[in-house]
Design brief:
Length: 115
């Protein structure tokens, strides 16, 4: 990972790494052991510099409810992971992301999958 220091922000390079296949579809979600602070920082990066479309977790979006940091981070992490080649590093988020074979989709909130 390459970090460039700027006067007002830190930029992280896109992920590079080996592909991780769990055999069948998989998703990237927030780790239950992650702290709220770490999740918030990772979510902010994912929806900002990570250039993930986070409109579905905004008020009125199909994935806004439940309105929890864990739920929003899970959706954003998975979107980023799916858009960035499903590599193991694309689900790291500073240790706050984890891979699962269990579809986290619910109601009208659909999580993209690797297959």
């Amino acid at each position: 990972m390459v970090v460039e220091e700027r006067a007002e922000s830190t930029l992280l390079s896109p992920p590079e790494g080996n592909m991780t296949f769990l055999g069948g579809p998989n998703w990237c979600v927030a780790s239950p052991s992650a702290t709220q602070s770490d999740l918030q920082n990772a979510l902010d990066w994912t929806c900002g510099l990570g250039m993930t479309d986070c409109n579905q977790i905004r008020p009125g979006g199909p994935c806004f409810q439940p309105d929890t940091l864990f739920s929003h981070a899970s959706f954003a992490f998975n979107s980023y992971y799916q858009q960035n080649g499903n590599s193991d590093i694309a689900c790291n988020f500073g240790g706050t992301g984890t891979l699962t074979k269990n579809d986290p989709s619910y109601g009208s909130c659909r999580y993209a999958s690797s297959e």
